[in-house]
Write a structure and sequence with these properties.
This protein is mainly alpha-helical. Helices cover 62% and strands 0% of the residues. It contains 10 helices and no strands. About 5% of the residues have low confidence. The structure holds zinc ion. Zinc ion binds next to helix 3 and helix 9.
């Protein structure tokens, strides 16, 4: 019965246009003009994207289950204290879902690939804002609660998320001409909001001394999350282990799969830590912290979603209006590549 389903063939790096190339991945590429059906079929065929898809698709359901549990078990609509948790869990569902969809459909065309990853970047920046909203509500150390920094923290995080989406989407445009510059831009686009959002947590667990440091049992979970977050960034930036042995990790064990797994584990520990902080600090925070309002929770999240969507549309328009370059293969004569449109 299975033999009746004809799975699409896979290609080597030299058989697909440069825009589809992955650093040190030699084989397992899908057809660069795959149909949507072929893309879905590739979930059940070992290609260099298969585990990228599954490592984010399955965790989407885990975080969705957590979100549904919170919404069903807690009086979310009446209790504004739980709103940041709901926003954070929503962002934890959206970013792996957007990523698994991007990895699934990225082989439909060069244009589809860029647009798919624009959504992936927008979802990641929304997750960074989700983290900031939840940190502001439950994680800030006692000492910093209600400080000037605490008051400015969410507006700055919203700006950072928007800048991050913008930078990450832009990074795809110079990709063919200067891949290193493009990669650097993308690393900065994700590292910068992460580092800013974690300032209160880093201060709390690494620097704070004396009273008001919120030195509780939750810190060990925060350490796990921070360690995994740095490992995630390291894997993304270095392309290890495949850079040491190009072609050996094409299907299983390459850096992007490990990056997905570490990212999800990090998010899991982050969620556990935050839930614990939320429960143990609830009464103190309700008494001393900035009240959780529509504008510093749901409103900020909605603003980020709307602006991110506008950015994605603006970056997608030049691609949609430039059909010529979509089919062009990169190679010795592809001099006409425009810096305005990422095609090669
Ligand atoms: Zn990915």
């Amino acid at each position: 019965m299975l033999s009746l389903i004809k799975l699409p063939r896979v290609f080597t790096i030299n058989q697909v246009p440069k825009v589809f190339h992955e650093d040190s991945i030699i084989s397992g590429y899908r057809h660069p003009r795959s149909s949507a059906t072929d893309c879905i079929l590739s979930l059940f065929q070992l290609t260099n994207e298969t585990l990228n898809i599954w490592t984010h698709f399955l965790p989407t359901w885990y975080f969705l289950w957590k979100l549904v549990t919170v919404v069903l078990m807690q009086p979310v609509w009446q209790d504004s204290f739980t709103w940041p948790l709901v926003i954070f869990l929503l962002s934890c569902c959206i970013y792996p879902l957007a990523s698994s969809c991007a990895h699934t459909f990225s082989s439909m065309s060069a244009r589809a690939r860029h647009i798919c990853f624009f959504f992936d970047y927008g979802a990641l920046s929304f997750y960074s804002l989700g983290s900031a909203i939840i940190y502001s509500a439950y994680v800030f150390p006692d000492k910093w609660v209600n400080s000037f920094f605490h008051q400015c923290y969410i507006p700055i995080a919203v700006c950072n998320a928007i800048i991050s989406t913008n930078m990450a989407c832009y990074s795809r445009f110079p990709e063919c001409q200067s891949p290193k510059f493009s990669k650097c831009l993308r690393v900065v686009a994700f590292a910068y909001p992460y580092l800013f959002d974690n300032i209160p947590l880093f201060y709390r667990v690494f620097l704070c001394a004396g009273e008001g440091c919120t030195d509780n049992d939750t810190n060990i979970l925060h350490y796990n999350h921070i360690a995994l977050a740095f490992l995630t960034g390291f894997l993304f930036a270095t392309h290890l282990p495949e850079r040491l042995a190009p072609g050996s990790f094409d299907y299983i064990g390459h850096s992007h799969q490990l990056f997905h797994v570490c990212g999800i584990l990090g998010t899991h520990f982050q969620m556990k830590a935050i839930e614990q902080d939320m429960v143990t600090r609830r009464s103190w925070l309700l008494e001393h912290s900035i009240p959780i309002t529509f504008s510093n929770s749901v409103g900020a999240a909605l603003l980020c979603v709307v602006v991110n969507l506008i950015i994605i549309i603006l970056y997608s328009l030049p691609l949609l209006s430039a059909p010529v370059c979509q089919e062009k293969k990169c190679g010795k004569g592809s001099k006409k590549t425009s810096s305005k449109v990422p095609c090669c």
